Amino acid sequence: MTISRWDPLRDMIALHEAMNRLVNESFGRPGTIAPAAPALRIAVDVYETDEAILILAALPGVAEDDVHLSATPEALTISVQTRRDEDLDAARPLLRERGAGAAERTIMLPPGLDTEAIDARLERGVLRVRLPKGDALRRRQVPVRFGPPQA
User: Greater confidence, 43 or 36?
Assistant: First the structure.
């Protein structure tokens, strides 16, 4: 049995090489097998004005027929379906970041919105949804009077 000195640098190099292999296999370098495309995710921004709640959803590459909205007084649900490019089925992917398939996103709504008067438009890959506020939610100016209180 031979005695060898412990070399911490050798262990660190081995760890570094193992981490490089893990990253290369996970994120796909040219010449390696590309990982599966990530799940489709609907990114949204929600804004409030005095008159309405505005929801903007990023839906790049989604056709108008593949977008579906459903609303209840409590929530708005956006459902989409994206399709793979069938003409690329024979090609070997090197990197795939665009997801394909079905996705759904539900946004909880404050009470008092007029869900019967929703306006939704899909323009240049952005879905714009306008939910008008009911009278109970609208801000109104309260006049301030000057002088002694009236009895």
Answer: 43
- pLDDT of residue 67 exceeding 70: yes
**What are the percentages of helix, strand and coil residues in the chain, rounded to 5?**
20, 30, 50
Structural element, H or E, at residue 44: strand 43-48
CATH 3.90.550.10 fits 43-86+95-132, yes or no: no
Asked if 136 contacts 73 with a C-beta cutoff of 8 angstroms, the reply is no
Global pTM value: 0.63
User: What confidence score (pLDDT) does residue 137 get?
Assistant: 63
Contact 67, 102 (CB under 8 A): no
DSSP string, 68-93: EEEE-SSEEEEEEEE---GGGTTSPP
